[in-house]
Amino acid sequence: AEVDAADAEGRRPMHLAAAAAAALRADGDDGSIRAAARREIVEALLRHGADSEASDSSGRTPAELCSASPRIVALLCEPSLVLVSSARRANRLYRLGDFGAASEAYERAIHVASSDASLCHPADLATLHFNCARALLKLACVVAALHQIESAIALRPEYVNARSLQAECHM
C-alpha cells in the first residue's frame, strides 16, 4: 500500500493515524495499549516514508490533527524519524519521476541530518547530497546540483559516482 495515498478529502494514512491518536487522547486514553498501538502506527508510517507535513484538502497537517496528543506530535518531530521518512519519500518520488518533490525531500533530509551529526554517518549524508544532485540535474538546475555534489565530495572525497556526476555537470 502507498503510505501517502490520499482519499477524496486529501487525507493520507498519517492524517488518519494522527486523528485516531488524538481521539484517544481526548477520551483520556493516551496511556492505553490502543494509544501505544496508534503511536507505533505513526512511527511505522514515518519509517516507510510517509509525509508528516502533507496537508489535507482543508489545509490541516497530521501535527495539527493530533495537537492534543503530545506524544504523537513528538514522534512527528523526532529528528531521526523525520530523516528516515524524508529520505525514503525522496527515493520513492525520484523513482516516480517527481524530481522537484524528490529534491525538496532530499533537502529536508539533508537539513535534518546536518543539524545533528549523530543522526547520520557522513557517507550516508554524502549519498543524500548525491541523490539530491541527481534530482536537481533532472530539473536542469545545474548550479544547485553542483553545490550538492561538492557537499557530497567534501564528505566523501573518494565518492567516484559524485565525481562522475560533477564531470557530467561541466559538459
Fraction of residues in helix: 55-70%
* DSSP strand count: 0
The string of secondary-structure elements, in order, is HHHHHHHHH
**Main structural class:** mainly alpha
Low-confidence stretches: none
Net shape: elongated
Proportion of strand residues: under 5%
Q: How many strands, which pairing sense, and closed or not: the largest β-sheet?
A: none
Average pLDDT across residues? 91
Measured between the Cα atoms of the first and last residue, the distance is 41 Å
* Radius of gyration, whole Å: 18 Å
Please work out how many helical segments DSSP would assign: 9
Give a verbal description of the structure:
By secondary structure, the chain is mainly α. Helices cover 68% and strands 0% of the residues. The chain contains 9 helices and no strands. It has helices at 13-26, 33-47, 62-65, 70-77, 79-96, 99-115, 122-138, 142-155, 160-169. Helix 5 (79-96) packs antiparallel against helix 6 (99-115) and helix 6 packs antiparallel against helix 7. The radius of gyration is 18 Å and the shape is elongated. The model has no long low-confidence stretch (mean pLDDT 91).
